[in-house]
Design a protein that fits this description.
The structure holds 2 protein chains of 2 kinds. By secondary structure, chain A is an alpha+beta fold. In chain A, the strands form 9 sheets. In chain A, strands 4-5-6-9 form a 4-stranded antiparallel beta sheet, with no helix packed on it. A 4-stranded antiparallel beta sheet of chain A has the order 10-11-12-13, with no helix packed on it. In chain A, strands 14-15-16-17 form a 4-stranded antiparallel beta sheet, with no helix packed on it. Chain A is 35% helix and 24% strand. In chain A, a hairpin with a 5-residue loop joins strand 30 and strand 31. Among the domains of chain A are: 161 residues, Serine Threonine Protein Phosphatase 5, Tetratricopeptide repeat; 305 residues, 7 Propeller (Methylamine Dehydrogenase, Chain H), CATH 2.130.10. In chain A, helix 5 packs antiparallel against helix 6. Chain B has a domain of 98 residues: Histone, subunit A, CATH 1.10.20. Helix content of chain B is 56%, strand content 4%. Chain B is mostly helical. Chain B is elongated, with a radius of gyration of 40 Å. Classes of the chains: A alpha+beta, B mainly alpha. At the A-B interface, helix 13, helix 14, helix 19, helix 20 and strand 3 of A face helix 3, helix 4, strand 3 and helix 19 of B. Chain A: This is Transcription initiation factor TFIID subunit 5. Chain A: Keywords: Nucleus, Repeat, Transcription, Transcription regulation, WD repeat. Chain A: It comes from Sinocyclocheilus anshuiensis.
């Protein structure tokens, strides 16, 4: 009873001074837990503390209602003295006289009293901490109208009774399972975020055993694609551990996004209101973002195709921003018409094609693609003479390109790395397929020549002084013939090299490593030029801009950074992913960067302003490969779940799902004309997909773009055009030569 | 760590490993610290969590290293993240042998003792790690996108080994040797061996030896068989060797081989075979070498237009063109025919004894040309039909007929040749290649015109071919005589609807054909026919068979004209006859229908309603043109009507 009086005083204080609440909230967790333990003088209840909550109004009426409820409770338990004190202190005399005689038959004993204590303490804490439920309880009008105590208590034991968490959850579960099928699928989306939040709250509030029991009971209900998260969660049972886990902290603070139709939402809201299941409601209010749309509820498959990410689905408005996905105007370069290779020209069908090719090139350079960004939206390096030569080479080669299609699949060249005991971690080819770089787990980068031409270093400065700089073949003379070899090793990193990328002009090579640096290597001297430090953690991937100069890197620090080769600090930092950025790619027009993450989402960032302009969810595992279609309109992504997803960048929609691989997809590449998508995986296969058909089948009209509800046809088998097996060589990288021969690379795995 | 692992294996049913507090206490004791139960419990839990966290982090390293196996190094990196000392001494990639101890639940990693002295003084110094290198494996596709068997070493890489050389010797010896059985085995192996890519140039060289054995038909034959085997070997990429093979084959087709001096040598068969082979090479590997088709055509044409060449060369050119498809015949042989005809005619008309051999050759050429142009006509007609497919589909008729017909059109699988016209820009090539070829001004000749012209050369023998050629006249007389009937009344039992179905355009031309007794295709017609005197041909035909005689005797002009029009769906004129026309459908032989009623099939046919269902006008107006083919040649009228006799 003495405790009760204390509590009553505290409550009165709280009620008298609601103004203080806001101030108190700032530093809530610590202060509150201290406060409660002091107040209650009861260790058991003292451990109950409340997590931070969002701000909101504190209607006085609610407090009053709480008090009434408490009074009722006290009375029922024959704690008349406390009742008196409380009433006096809370000035509630006027409200209730009729109820005073209500209580009858004591003898509940101290045990009950103790219970009451703990309950009340909770109530008090709750009322102090979070009186601002947006769900306004029924206002008190008369004594007949008074709410049931338990309801009100539950309303305020929001962080509350750990033992009731299971009840809350299962009552919601029962409800959702009982609703109509069309709503059930939508509402089922609530399970996972609620489960995680409730579990985390239990953990946060040190209800270790309750948390474990909760987990035991409900973890089995979650969608299978959340297994990885659940595995992490199940080991986490202490608040201290939670503190160290940034991903989960992010989960707590960020809002899980759900997309629910208005009907389903109303249904849920009504249910929660009827049942006064405020605990759930509060979590929904605070931790979830429900994106309500009008129209038909989505089907289970529709939902499943979009869910799976660590942070829920995409908010619709996120993908509304305009993306200039068109290609930049090709610089006009006069192609010298030499017919020295008329053999190729005479090839069947070739001359015609060449003609059309030229025409298209011409027309492309004449009129600007309406979806293309301004030519100078991002300052790009000027073309050097050598670049122009290379462009001419490229055009010549592309006239000899084989037109791929379902009837005409590419041949494949597999570059197997033998004796790579140290572990091959990354591979890249130059655009003209002349060089091949491998990053290895022993911190080395090796460069091979894929042509008979050997790799040579430039002569030393002293020797360079001796050569005749006026001679025509000066570029040849500067090379040191003695150093010619088929491969060169680049030493400098102090950890496994996870990403390598050639510059488009083939003069530089980037490598990113576990040691937290990105290094720029010269392929003239085969030395390291710069070490870019910024990521303090492993850098998982790096990629050169298609125009050179810029590059992007992403790593364990959950950000991607945009660099320019001549700046030692990043130009942009793209932050937003909730977990590691695992792969990064530049858009063909260099205005955008796409990143894939362990949080199972893909983000497209605008290089100009650093904004995230597209946010794609749908993968069920960390994303390990990304590829833009050559026309810049589409994106393909591959993840550990063995699926390739196709995205329409302009509309911000998923437009295809390619199922077939049985292991992580580490390599994706579109053919030069975009007709074929090749995917390479850990399962030792390269698969070819009919990307043209995939894109055509999915008609993205404005309606689907507006709602974002897509029906993915399950046509993976139709789209799968071919498959190449390797015996025991996981595919690490794929590349289409300029003539559309497919090159694949991987390390032979002898085990 | 070991203990964790131990526990992990011990209780697999647990969701995750736990470190028992006893272990913690033991470890603490080993470092001289006494722990209370409570502390040990807490520590155990924390250790457990940290281990799990580190393991989870380490899996990231594993994934990015693109491995399936978590290595100790991965775990160490994760430990470094959390500023924990790493585990040393387990960096080896080999799996650690993990052993349980029978007494007590103890698991440990086996750590064998190594005698350093022994190791240091060992004489068998292990080889250093092989250099990391890149090997290229090619899985190539043929031109049609079929995956060639994988894992073959690219030709460029493969070097010529002892074994291969031995193989080469054996094979060539077997093929060119005496033993036919050995030869067969060798050819079969050549056709299926996947490892002979490196020998390809050698074989090609051997084959190019055809020029030196032109006196020996047998050897030539064997070499051609060798070509065939090489071409059919799915593991071989012929590449530019196709050119060389083609030139060898062309040699056999076109050259006046030494062997052909002796008329007893059957070099004709060799040429036929070579021509077949040529077409096979072209259709399967033609895409490997650019402009191959064009080159072949050019050289064939050159031979054909060279009057100095012996007739056997001309024969080769014709069969070569024939083998290359009807398009080639249309482009090269057909325009060239008028010029060539004079020469051939001269040869054939010379009855002198000294000319006998040459004349026999001339007949060969004549026969070859005949076969070629007939197929040209058929294919051209067929291509028209196919082009007008849609128009046919709606052909009205009895219900069964309609259904049957539709089935027909479904079942109709276009023969590969006329449709798979090579996707080459033939015209452009030829223009580029120029050399005053007639194709520069070549314009497609309409089928009727072509037929007219050809008829002027071959006369009735041409038509005979039509009516008897098995592939088209599958249901022999009925199909050929009244293909339309077969078409309208498929249910009436014509077994080979598919074929009859293709016939309609030809019907018109067939009106001219009085002769039904199909002579074997290859039998050259008597030269007299070639003179194409209509009257003569008529006389001949009317006298040659009773069928034609009876037919020609009952000529009912009005009826048959309407009939011939009716053949084509677009009947521009109202049908003159009153009442439904009766079509006789004779299943059996030529005259059977007349005599035995049982074999005669009579059915009524409701006249075509005015073409509401017959859609494409293009088709409709195209076809009557063919129907009119026979008109300009008025002298044939009699034979023209003769076909309709049974009616």
């Amino acid at each position: 009873a003495r405790h009760n009086s204390y509590r009553g005083k505290k409550m009165a204080a709280v009620q008298d001074a609601p103004m203080e609440l806001d101030a108190e909230k700032e530093t809530k967790p610590e202060i509150l837990s201290d406060g409660t333990s002091n107040l209650s003088g009861n260790t058991a209840s003292g451990t109950l503390s409340s997590p931070p909550l969002t701000a909101g109004g504190a209607p006085k009426q609610e407090d009053q209602q709480t008090l009434i409820a408490v009074l009722q409770f006290l009375r029922r338990n024959k704690l008349t003295e406390s009742v008196e004190i409380l009433r006096r202190e809370a000035c509630l005399e006027d409200q209730e006289d009729s109820q005073t005689l209500d209580g009858s038959g004591g003898g509940k004993g101290d045990g009950d009293g103790g219970d009451a204590n703990s309950l009340l303490s909770r109530v008090s804490i709750a009322s102090a901490a979070a009186p601002q439920s947006t769900l306004t309880p029924i206002p008190v009008k008369s004594e007949y109208d008074q709410p049931d105590v338990s309801v009100v208590l539950s309303a305020y034991s929001q962080q509350g009774d750990p033992s009731l968490y299971q009840v809350y959850y299962s009552s919601l579960k029962n409800f959702i399972e009982s609703v109509l099928d069309c709503h059930r699928a939508e509402l089922s989306q609530l399970f996972y975020p609620l489960f995680v939040h409730m579990y985390l709250e239990l953990v946060y509030n040190n209800h270790e055993n309750k948390a474990k029991a909760f987990f035991e009971k409900f973890s089995g209900d979650q969608e299978c694609y959340y297994q990885d998260d659940l595995r992490i969660l199940c080991g986490l049972t202490k608040k201290e551990h939670l503190k160290g886990n940034e991903a989960l902290l992010d989960f707590r603070t960020s809002r899980f996004v759900l997309r629910i139709s208005r009907d389903s939402y109303q249904l849920l809201k009504r249910h929660l209101q009827e049942r006064h299941n405020n605990q759930i409601w509060n979590i929904i209010q605070e931790h979830l973002y429900i994106d309500i749309f009008d129209g038909m509820p989505r089907s289970k498959s529709q939902i499943d195709s979009m869910s799976g990410s660590f942070a829920g689905e995409t908010r619709r408005e996120v993908n509304k921003a305009k993306v200039f996905y068109g290609l930049l105007k090709e610089p006009e370069i006069e192609v010298p018409l030499d017919d020295e290779d008329d053999e190729a020209e005479n090839e069947e069908g070739k001359p015609k094609k060449k003609k059309t090719k030229k025409d298209s090139m011409g027309s492309k350079s004449k009129k600007q693609d309406p979806n293309a960004p301004q030519q100078n939206r991002i300052p790009l390096p000027e073309l050097k003479d050598s670049d122009k030569l290379d462009k001419i080479m490229y055009m010549k080669e592309s006239t000899k390109r084989i037109r791929l299609g379902p009837e005409n699949l590419p041949s494949i060249c597999f570059y197997s790395f033998l004796n790579a005991y140290q572990g091959l971690t990354a591979v890249d080819f130059t655009d003209d397929s002349s060089l091949l770089a491998g990053g290895f787990a022993d911190s080395t980068v090796r460069v091979w020549s894929a042509t008979p031409k050997k790799l040579r270093k430039v002569k030393s400065a002293a020797e360079l002084n001796l050569i005749d700089k006026e001679s025509d073949d000066v570029l040849e003379r500067i090379m040191d013939e003695k150093t010619a070899s088929e491969s060169k090793n680049l030493y400098g990193h102090s950890g496994p090299v996870y990403g390598v990328s050639f510059s488009p002009d083939r003069n530089y090579l980037l490598s990113s490593s576990e040691d937290g640096t990105v290094r720029l290597w010269s392929l003239q001297t085969f030395t390291c030029l710069v070490g870019y430090k910024g990521h303090n953690y492993p850098v998982w991937d790096t990629h050169f801009s298609p125009f050179g100069y810029y590059f992007v890197s992403g790593g364990h620090d959950r950000v991607a950074r945009l660099w320019a080769t001549d700046h030692y600090q990043p130009l942009r930092i793209f932050a937003g992913h909730l977990a590691d950025v695992t792969c990064t790619r530049f858009h063909p027009n260099s205005n955008y960067v796409v990143t894939g993450s362990t949080d199972r989402t893909i983000r497209l960032w605008d290089v100009l302003n650093g904004n995230c302009v597209r946010f794609f969810t749908g993968h069920k595992g960390p994303i390990h490969s990304l590829a833009f279609s050559p026309n810049g309109k589409f994106l393909a992504s591959g993840s550990t779940d063995g699926r390739v997803l196709l995205w329409d960048i302009g509309h911000g929609l998923m437009i295809g799902e390619l199922k077939g691989h049985t292991d992580t997809i580490y390599a994706l590449k579109f053919s030069r004309d975009g007709e074929i998508l090749a995917s390479g995986s850990m399962d030792n296969t390269v698969r070819l997909w009919d990307s043209m058909k995939a894109f055509d089948d999915m008609e993205t009209d404005d309606f689907t773009a507006a709602t974002g509800h897509i029906h993915l046809p399950d046509n993976s088998q139709e789209l799968l055009l071919g498959m190449y097996h390797s015996k025991s060589t996981p595919v690490t990288h794929l590349h289409f030569t300029r003539r559309n021969l497919l090159l694949a690379a991987g390390a032979y795995n002898s085990q | 760590l070991d203990i964790t692992n131990a526990k992990m294996t011990e209780r697999e049913e647990r969701r995750f490993a736990e470190v028992p507090r006893e272990s913690i206490k033991l470890m603490a004791e080993s470092t001289g610290v006494e722990l209370s139960e409570e502390v040990a419990t807490l520590l155990a839990e924390d250790v457990c969590y940290r281990l799990r966290e580190a393991t989870q982090n380490s899996s990231q390293f594993m994934r990015h290293a693109k491995r399936r196996k978590l290595s100790v190094e991965d775990f160490n990196r994760a430990l470094r993240w959390s500023n924990t000392e790493t585990v040393c001494g387990y960096g080896a990639q080999d799996a650690l042998p993990f052993r349980p101890l029978k007494e007590g639940e103890l698991f440990f990693v086996e750590d064998r003792e190594i005698n350093l002295v022994e190791l240091a003084l060992a004489t068998n110094i292990p080889k250093g790690c092989a250099e990391t290198m890149v090997r290229v494996h090619v899985s190539y596709l043929d031109g049609k996108g079929n995956l060639e068997p994988q894992g073959t070493v690219p030709t460029a890489v493969q070097s010529l080994s002892e074994d291969l050389l031995k193989y080469y010797q054996q094979i060539t010896r077997a093929i060119l040797g005496e033993d036919p059985h050995l030869m067969k085995v060798a050819l079969l192996d050549l056709q299926s061996n996947s490892k002979i890519a490196a020998l390809l140039p050698y074989f090609v060289y051997v084959i190019s030896g055809v020029k030196s054995v032109s006196h020996d038909l047998d050897q030539l034959n064997r070499l051609l068989h060798m070509v065939k085997s090489l071409v059919q070997n799915p593991y071989l990429y012929l590449g530019s060797y196709v050119r060389s093979l083609v030139s060898s084959v062309m040699y056999c087709i076109l050259e006046p081989l030494a062997a052909s001096i002796n008329p007893l040598n059957d070099h004709w068969t060799l040429r036929d075979y070579a021509a077949l082979l040529l077409s096979h090479i072209f259709w399967t590997h033609g895409d490997l070498v650019s402009g191959l088709y064009h080159q072949i055509l050019l050289s064939l044409q050159k031979v054909l237009s060279d009057p100095v060449r012996p007739l056997c060369s001309h024969y080769g050119a014709v069969v070569g063109l024939h083998a290359l498809g009807w398009k080639a015949v249309e482009r090269v042989l057909y325009p060239h025919l008028p010029a060539y005809w004079a020469n051939l005619q001269a040869v054939l008309d010379d009855y002198s004894v000294s000319n006998a051999q040459v004349k026999a050759d001339g007949h060969k050429v004549y026969g070859a040309i005949l076969v070629a142009v007939e197929r040209l006509l058929k294919m051209k007609a067929l291509s028209l039909t196919l082009a007008a497919e849609g128009g046919c589909a709606g052909l009205p008729g009895t219900a069964t007929g309609a259904v049957g017909f539709r089935e027909n059109s479904l079942g109709l699988s276009p023969p590969p040749e006329p449709l798979s016209e090579p996707p080459l820009g033939i015209a452009s090539h030829l223009q580029a290649g120029g050399a005053g070829c007639p194709w520069e001004e070549w314009t497609p000749v309409s089928l009727p015109a072509m037929y007219c012209e050809l008829y002027s050369f071959f006369g009735d023998s041409l038509a005979v071919r039509f009516s008897t050629d098995p592939p088209l006249g599958g249901a022999p007389p009925s199909g050929s005589r009244q293909p339309l009937e077969g078409r309208k009344e498929p249910a009436s039992g014509a077994p080979n609807l598919e074929n009859t179905r293709k016939m309609p355009q030809l019907t018109a031309s067939m009106n001219i054909s009085p002769r039904q007794d199909g002579s074997p295709c290859m039998e050259p017609q008597p030269p007299s026919l070639a003179a194409t005197v209509p009257g003569r041909s008529l006389a001949r035909s009317s006298s040659s068979s009773s069928v034609s005689r009876s037919r020609s005797s009952s000529s009912r002009p009005g009826r048959s004209t309407s009939q011939s029009r009716d053949i084509f769906p677009k009947a521009r004129f109202p049908l003159p006859q009153v009442g439904p026309p009766a079509f006789s459908f004779i299943i059996g032989g030529r005259q059977m229908g007349r005599r035995c009623q049982g074999r005669r099939f009579q059915t009524s046919f409701t006249p075509t309603p005015p073409l509401t269902t017959l859609p494409p006008r293009a088709y409709a107006h195209k076809l009557p043109v063919i129907g009119r083919v026979s008109k300009p040649v008025r002298r044939w009228t009699c034979s023209h009507y003769s076909l309709h006799l049974p009616l």
